[in-house]
Specification:
Elements (H helix, E strand, L loop, with lengths): L1 E6 L5 H9 L2 E7 L6 E6 H8 L2 H4 L3 E5 L2 E12 L6 E8 L6 E10 L5 H4 L4 E4 L3 E6 L8 E4 L9 E2 L10 E2 H4 L5 E6 L6 H5 L12
Parallel strand pairs: 1-4, 2-6, 7-10
Antiparallel strand pairs: 1-3, 2-3, 4-5, 5-6, 7-9, 8-13, 9-12, 11-13
Length: 207
């Protein structure tokens, strides 16, 4: 995805306030061999880009004054109660350096699972994203969680996910294996209870 920005010369609270009144958003791009650089972006274009899931979990092509560089979105500051972006941070990425980022989970084939078709269970998504580390070229926009084999007897853990080649889960790298999804029969046991599974002991019994 491409993001258009321009250099920001004036600094300070007053300058940022004037930018926002003019429909612009102050920001910064940092990292890599270059110095941090203050930038400004069109608010409306940025606001709509932020509503796209891939904008938060993809390598972005940031063009500043005609020159492009690869970046990741690192932080967004919103107005406390208005739909206004107050500030945005981007981090430069290098093709040969691994990045760490949270990637959304897409749950598929849920209605085909034994948990729903046979056991009439309710499936709970304990996690909606996981943190991964990989080279920029290997970064997925999302990770699919195939629920077709889900039953009340078994919960889905991160170790059960089919991660793309070159992509590692930071949780597994730290010897943790959190639950991603569980199935619970109304008035009965959850998948973790039925199988006696405990995972890492956190979040297994959310329903």
């Amino acid at each position: 995805m491409k993001v258009i920005a321009s250099s920001r010369q004036l600094q300070g609270t007053g300058a940022s306030r004037r930018l926002r009144r003019a429909g612009r958003v102050p920001g910064i791009v940092y990292g890599g061999a270059s110095d941090a650089r203050s930038i400004e972006l069109d608010h409306n274009a940025l606001y709509h880009a932020l509503r796209v899931e891939a904008f938060h979990s993809s390598i972005l092509d940031l063009e500043v004054d005609g020159a492009s560089e690869s970046v990741l979105l690192r932080d967004v500051q919103w107005h406390p109660y208005k739909r206004l972006v107050m500030h945005i941070d981007f981090q430069r990425v290098q093709g040969n350096e691994k990045v760490t980022l949270s990637v959304p989970l897409h749950f598929v084939n849920q209605e085909q699972s034994p948990a729903i078709k046979i056991q009439h269970a309710v499936i709970s998504h304990v996690l909606t994203e996981i943190e991964v580390t990989c080279l920029p070229a290997d970064l997925p926009e999302y990770i699919e969680v195939d629920m077709s084999g889900m039953s009340v007897e078994h919960s889905v853990h991160i170790s059960n996910l089919n991660l793309p080649k070159g992509v590692q889960s930071t949780a597994l790298m730290h010897d943790q294996d959190p639950v991603v999804a569980t199935a619970t029969v109304k008035g009965g046991a959850s998948s973790g209870d039925a199988a006696g599974e405990g995972g890492d002991g956190s979040g297994d019994e959310e329903a």
